[in-house]
Model the fold of this input.
Amino acid sequence: MTTTFEPRSIEERANYLNVDYGWKSWLFTTDHKRIALLYLFSITAFFLIGGAFAVGMRLNLVTPGGLFEADTYNKLFTMHGIIMVFFFLVPSIPAVLGNFLIPIMIGARDLAFPRINLLSWYIYVTGGLFTITAAFEGGVDTGWTFYAPFSTTYSNTHVILTAMGVFVAGFSSILTGLNFIITIHKMRAPGMTWGRLPLFVWSHYATSIIQVLGTPVIAITLVLLALERVLRAGIFDPALGGDPILFQHLFWFYSHPAVYIMILPGMGVISELIPCFSRKAIFGYNFVAFSSVAIAVIGFLVWGHHLFVAGQSMYASTVFSLLSFLVAVPSAIKVFNWTATMYRGSISFETPMLYAFGFIGLFTIGGLTGLVLATMALDVHLTDTYFVIAHFHYVMVGGMVMAYLGGIHFWFPKISGRMYPEGWAKFAALVVFVGFNLTFFPQFLLGYLGMPRRYHAYAPEFQVLNVMSSAGASILGVGYLIPMIYLFWAWRHGPKAPQNPWGAKGLEWEQSPTPPPTFNFNTPPVVTEEAYNYAEEAPLG
Amino acid sequence: MAETDAGPLVHAAGVRHHFDTAEQQFESATLGMWVFLLTEIMFFGGMFGSYTVYRNMYPDAFASTSHFMNVTLGGINTAVLICSSFTMALAVRAGQLGSKKTLILFLILTLVLGCVFLSIKYVEYHEKWVDHHVPGPEFRYADSRYFHHAQILFFLYFAMTGMHALHMIVGVGLLTTLIVMAARNRFSATWYTPVEMIGLYWHFVDVVWIFLFPLLYLIGHTA
Amino acid sequence: MSHPIVPTRVYAAVFAALIALTITTVAVSKLDLGEYNFIAAMTIAVIKGSLVVWFFMNVRRSSSLTRLFVGAGFLWMAILIVFVLSDYFSRGWLPAPGWWK
Done:
């Protein structure tokens, strides 16, 4: 089966898309750009599946009595969480944009280990298939957090199959991180010093550190969980002398840093968008670069804030609370630097910049509410309520998904060689922003008022806010569907993109053709200037 | 491999296309293997952590179970693995020198020692099975005070040594691959990278055992 | 590639040291030193592990980047174990004793 791609003109240059056709050239490729597209395809599929579960949840919550049975609802929120966290958010930007851009941004011909890159996609798909199979077989009802002893002893669903799906997908994450670390250390072009790396690369380096050091711990945790489910030795079962909190420690040791895996790449995208659409160099490059690494390191020291009410010692909780306050500092530094970059800049409002603005506002709200939850005394009241749900959706969806969409739009011309329709794109960005806030802001209020999470039914006085939230979700869904349609259309029929439609700096825009050839550059690049060398605005007056 | 507008990019033989020099390729491979070993440290670390927690929680049960650890077999296995690390180091050295016969000899010795380790492990596990110390429906424990706690400790014993043994089995498979490749003249003094990398893996598995042995077999033995 | 070849006698010396340390650790374990049994055994294990990493895995002649990676790995495992244990050890500090007692 060959794709029918008609070159627009006989002078059409060879690029990574038209160099070869047929399914084998895609499924056996080692070109990091094609692998990025393989990931784009599968990640979008998982996003839709995870979104479908969310639709089920929001439908259920329209009435106080709940539309579905409690057991069904448990499965809906579990599958939604597992798929969105492990199969969409964790891979999203690194596997799609990181894979595509990192070699080009540093001036390399490919990643350090191209075949491992392909292997990691296959591993990801395999893990996904395990989990989808479990979903078809009736799903899992433990929550994406798999807490013991319910998951080890009492749940009657396909826990092991799902856990193994996540375990397998974890290896994909590890291999991607490994690949990025070695690539960034070893494959930089002459003149591309650490101090000239795009911040997108810095943030992926920090993300890769977390992927490599954190993911193995959840891997062993899931193995122990599966073994315990079979053998019932009691490692996490209090009735048999085990400690369920040990499970939580091991689980969150990865899962907290995992949220930084999910947000750091998004911050990297924003660090590229803001300078470009402000026509100004990033303010405080060193601070932004080091803050990425600081988030990665400190992020490993805060996981106990998920255990404040679980039975963890008060002394450990105090330390974790303090460290959680500390980890907010580098994130705030980034927000300040982005803002300072825009100050006195020449700002334009193309779609990627709209998403960047959305990110900064929504991530700030999400981050600040995280500080609220890190305060032990407040967490006692807010934990396991909708406040937590709103908090993490603000950072993950308001933050990360916005950054993902912004990045997809920004680099779409580079990836496809085409332009997307700007009018539709701006409209969709607006719909997403409105839909998102309508969905999740009421949830802050619900949580503050005491509505618990993971309940299929709720007290009648919460209905108005729940209906608002569900209405918002339908708008948000539309906002996500619109880009899928026009981007797909633009891939085939959009106007051809110029070499550098945004006038952006960076090797990918300035020295690599649009779209790039298989080995990225026609002549090996040499870097002679600092990053973000946008012309400074003439001083006023 | 696509041609670029400037013609095919030229590089030395034996160097993959995306690398500039053989040095860069070798260093990338070695560093990559080290990063992988870091993931393994964290993987085993989770189990070491769990074991330490329960040992501190149930010191009496732990003292009770430690009598059932076969120090003799454990000690022999430790010596076997140390020998295998020695032969592996010599194999890598032979690879560096390009001495095919020596390389194959030491790889085979390492393989044999690895299999000896696994056989002794099998004997140990069989011993435990006969004693009904394998966690699960067949678990029995003489001292009924410690039944549940002992089961947890044995669970972690099997998880840790079992995961280690699994890594040994993979290592044996990798060694076999190396021996076949060496026999087919794939290695030379300028390219022996897989030997170096699998050597790192093998030594790492040895290091894990170096910590497992005292933790599981030796401490608490005098209680 | 451009690594200087390590002489066999170096490896042999390390091997002999490892065997000697193994015999030592088994012998020490048969004595009753109370808490020091654990410290002695772990100290010997750390020395043995370091010998393997430093000599057999050639960290002795590796770049500082490699050494940084190796150090980071052990540091991270230490973070996991120490922080988790800090919870268990400090639970008894509350007025209510640990639930498992």
